[in-house]
Amino acid sequence: MATTRTSTLSGGRLAQLTRAYPVLQGYATLPSLLVFLVPLLVDTGLVRGVWSWAVAIGSLFAADFLSRRVRRWYEHSFGLVRPAGGKSWRPLFAYVGVLLIGFAVVPGLLIRYMGVPTAVFEGDVLSWPFVVFGAVVLGIGVAYRPYLPFNVIAGALLLSLALVPLGAWLGLPGSVHPFSNGVVRLSVLAVGLIGHAFIAHATLVRELRHIQRELGNPAASEFGHGESGEAV
Amino acid sequence: MNEPFQELASLNKIIHEPGRLAIVTALSACESADFVFLLRLTGLSKGNLSAHLSKLEEAGVVLIRKEFAGKVPRTVVSLTDDGRGSVRAYWEQLERLKREAGKWRPVVEPA
């Protein structure tokens, strides 16, 4: 369904917000932290053997359950909107799914428990899943560029760190990359995910406030007047 | 002759009211929205929003559906096809009046 031509506001900003609305529900991605913290537990020896699998699978379910609860909170507090032409009420589910796959299945399960080769550079080891994850983060940032420039920067940074032989550049011994340290790697991802969550949420709140101000006097907006009603 | 200004009085009054204009402007940018989202977006009180939605529904501008998310009821609102057309026509008329008002010059009576 095509959007109706209304005010200067609805031509872009409002329609754009309704499309990006699920992605801007940033707190819903926070439970993903649980999933990729599992490898950290394995690294530190707190979880071993068959329990590694149980904890990994359990963290997936727990993250999904918590993410649903957070989305329900968003529905309760911010409401639901179906974008023009949109078929699904919950594209966020797909978004969280991508994050879970990026965080959990690839680096968490495959690498940690199945011993999949992870090097993209001979002599300067780095996990290829980080290339995939960096590309996913970058893709989401580009798709929702007006709202998530942080993702563009974070994705590009992650890709750069994943693709350049940083270990060699920093003069670290052969085959050692800073990201080969589990704690460093997971901390970087955790900071990135938390950053995304808070920035996306803040963007949603800010956009809603901005649009509410414009909607409070849409005719004035159309005729080039400021919020006070005075000509600008 | 103050034609553009006289025509302002003929704007669709159901849509022209600021609260309802905010609602239909929000709805015209999406397929549908629930009550809470409209509340957030328009900044209206629950009572005001409810009253405006009732008037818009009576006028055939919006369609109101009751849905359940589990046990929680949810009010979903969307523009009807007629309503979407009315909103489009409203803004087109307003834009035309804006242009005409810009060209309008008062007729100065000779002293």
What can you see in these coordinates?
The complex is a heterodimer of chains A (232) and B (111). With 232 residues, chain A is mainly α. Helix content of chain A is 65%, strand content 1%. The radius of gyration of chain A is 21 Å and the shape is flat. Chain B has 111 residues and is α+β, with helices and mostly antiparallel strands. Chain B has one domain: Arc Repressor Mutant, subunit A. Chain B has 6 helices and 3 strands. In chain B, strands 1-3-2 form a 3-stranded antiparallel sheet. In chain B, strand 2 and strand 3 form a beta hairpin. The two termini of chain B are 19 Å apart. In chain B, 33% of the residues are buried. The model of chain B has no long low-confidence stretch (mean pLDDT 85). The interface between A and B is medium-sized, with 33 and 34 residues.
Identify the notable features of this structure and list them briefly.
heterodimer; A: 232 residues; mainly alpha; 9 helices; flat; disordered C terminus; B: 111 residues; alpha+beta; Arc Repressor Mutant, subunit A; three-stranded antiparallel beta sheet; 59% helix
Task: Write a brief caption for the model.
The complex is a heterodimer of chains A (232) and B (111). With 232 residues, chain A is mainly alpha-helical. Chain A has nine helices and one strand, in the order H-H-H-E-H-H-H-H-H-H.
The main sheet of chain A comes to: none
Please count the beta strands of chain B (DSSP E, at least 2 residues each).
Answer: 3
Helix/strand-derived class of chain A? mainly alpha
What's the CATH superfamily of chain B, by name? Winged helix-like DNA-binding domain superfamily/Winged helix DNA-binding domain
Query: Which term fits the overall shape of chain A?
Result: flat
Give the topology string of chain A: H per helix, E per strand: HHHEHHHHHH
Poorly predicted tracts of residues of chain B: none
Strand percent estimate of chain A: under 5%
Helix content of chain A: 55-70%
